[in-house]
Structure formats: structure tokens, C-alpha cells
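Give me C-alpha cells for this 453-residue protein.
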Amino acid sequence: MASASARSVRSAIQAAPSPKRLTAGDASTAAGVKVEEAERALAELAARAGGALEVTTSGELVYAFKDDFEEQLLARDSDARRVAQQEEFLEFAEKAVRTAFGASLLVSLLVVYVAIAAASSTERDERRRERGGGFGFGGGFGFNIFDVFYYTSPRPGVRRVYADGEQEEEMNFLESIFSFVFGDGNPNDGIEDEQWRLIGTLLKEQQGAVVAEQVAPLMLEPVDATQGEDFMLEVLCRFGGTPEYDEITNRIVYTFKAAQVTAQLSSLESETWGTTSGGRGGGGGVLQEQLVQFSNAPAAQRALGVMLGLANIVGVGILGAKLGDPLVVRAMARDASGAGLLDSVKALMPLLSAYAVSFFAIPFGRNALNQRRNAEIDQRNASRLRAASAAKGNSPSLQKGLEAASRRKAKRTLRDSDVTFRSDRSVTDQLARDEAADFDRRLRGDADQTTLR
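Here you go.
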């Protein structure tokens, strides 16, 4: 929910005449909020409504909005709610379909081969009856459908061991079927959180002052900082930053006060603060997406799933052929139980056939889709790598920006000696400690003056 100051600034933008261009001071006076609150609200609203950040020749920052600003905000909020609801529903539906599809393989195999066995037995009896006796050739398929259930749970002691020594329970059969047919989901879930983590690390390393070129390689949607810096609006909103115009270099430097203050001490503090693995540009980090794998299931489990899928589709073909044999149909229709089984199997044949075909059609189509997705991922990764290379380049504009940022870098470490109050200690004890510390300081001061005399 938006804060009261953000709602006030939003109303001020809506009431502003066309063209809607406001400084932080304009929004502050019109909305009756603090300048800092107005500036943060302007940056947030500009990011959400497609606004732009302008810099005047005198170095003033202006936020420009389109005349349909309110309509764009309402549409964006409505779209976000609708997308969230759709994603929640699709996630539930996908899980239900995946579970039903995997379990249906066992049901399909059971139904198909029981029906084949019944039809074959009836066919043999009918042929013996027509010949007036004799014997039938027994035998079977050499396949026990109930053996499948042995594979539906992981066997004790079977674990996958990774290079780092961590062990993880191996997929059971049904999980492998899910993986083969539907894949293992998006490997880049959480990539947006990783984006913000990397950007936050960069801001800390650069002591709270950066230029757009340093942030560009970390954006999820590839950007070209030389073509515009609108993408920095979202970063400003996220980390409470402020754009500052540097009159010497004519560059915008983005400063983040929160990243310039820390209470964490490190033995490598002097080496890590203000540097990154990317060299003097400080833009060595790159956000990289993972390629979508066809399946993460063990090869043996996938092979078992393929074999059962083939057994199922072959069985459906055999069953269809038997149901098309007049001799089998005539024999099964002789008694009520056979006729009932015949009608049931005929009714199920479209579903059994569709399942048997889709068992292989879905992975085939998914593989083609994965190839297209991976090509897009490769393009985005390559774009970020180019942005990272540019952030370590020697272009005059970049060097000026880095010089301007270096003048605004700052670091303040809060140590125990800076603490004047702790919530886990009584006020009386802390006041007594402060008085003792003040007495010690005065005593040391008197001693120093005596020494000087």
C-alpha cells in the first residue's frame, strides 16, 4: 500500500498542468511533504508510469510524466494484480496436471494390458470353440504391470552425491516421469532477487556512488546505458538513492546514503571497500541466466520412463487392433461381463490413445520451446556481457562519470564506541556508563594539559 506522502505526490502530479514536469521542490510544496519524501515518491511513480528523468543546464533534476499518467498507473496496477492471480492459478493447475499425468501412466498401463489379456483369452476360447477343441497357446508378454510400483518410491540408500559433498535424495520414478514429460520448471526462478542482491553488493563496494554504466550489466532486462538511464529509476526506488548532477563532467551520479554507512567490520575491509573484481571501473559483476535443461532426472529413471511409455503406446496399438477384430468383439459380446468390459474399453480408447501420444508429444514440443528460450537467454547474457565490457572501457564519458562518482564516495563505519543506547540494557546503567566515560575523557584532557605545561 502506498504511503500518505506518495499518495499526496501522486495527486500533485495529476493536478499539474500539461506538460507534467515537476522538480522535487514542486512536488514538495504542492503535496505538503518533505523534499526527500517527494523526491523518492517522484522516482517511484516515474518508474511505474513510464516517466523520464531530465537534467537542466543548471543541474536541476526534473521528473517528466505523460498526460495520461493516472491511466497508466491504474493500468499497471491492474495488470500486476491480474498477472499475480494468473500465476498463482497456473502454478496450482500445473502441479495438479503434472501429478495426474504421471500417475495416469500406471493406470493406463494397467488398463491396457489387463484389457489385452482379457481380449486375448476370449479370442483363444473362441478359436477353440470354432475348432471344436484343441489347446491354446498360453504364455504372456513377459511383463508384470505390478512391477512398476516397485519404482514409484526411492530405494533406501540411493542418493545423489554432488561435487561439494552435499547429498540429495534421488528422484523417484513418478518424479522422473514428471521431469521427463514436463521438465523441472524455470531454473531462473528468483533471478530478480539475485539482480537486486548483486546491485546492492555493487553499491556497497562503490561506497554508495555509481554511474549507470556500472549498474547496466546487472539488470535483468538488458539495457544500454549510452541510450538512456531510465532503468536507474527503479534502482533509486529500491535502495533509496538520489540522482545528482555533476557540473564539472556533465554526468549524473547516483548516490545511496544507506550504502555509505555500515556496522559490519571485516579484516579485509580496506581491500573490499570501493573495489570489485572488475577493475578500476568497478563493474566486474554480471547477471547471468541459466539455460533451461530438458530434464534433471537421472538417466536410468528417464530410460525407465521412456520404456514404459513405449510399452504403453504399443499396448494401445495392440488393444486397438484387437477391438477391431470381429472375432474378438463377437466373443466378448457373448456374456454380460464381456460386453460390459468391451463397452468400457471402447469408451476409454480415445483417452488412452491421447495419453499415449501426448506422453511423447509434450516432451518433443517442450524441447523445441526450450531451444527457443535458451537462444533468448543466450542473447540476454551476451548483451549483459557487452555492457560489462563497456563498464570497464576507457570511453571519455565513462571516465568522467567515474571521476564524478569517486568525489561522492563516502564510508562511515559504526563501531561499538559510537553506541549511546542499547535496548537490551537499562537506561540507568547506560547513563552511569556515559557519565563514567565523560569523566574519563575530562580526566584525560586535564592530564594532557598538565603535560603541556
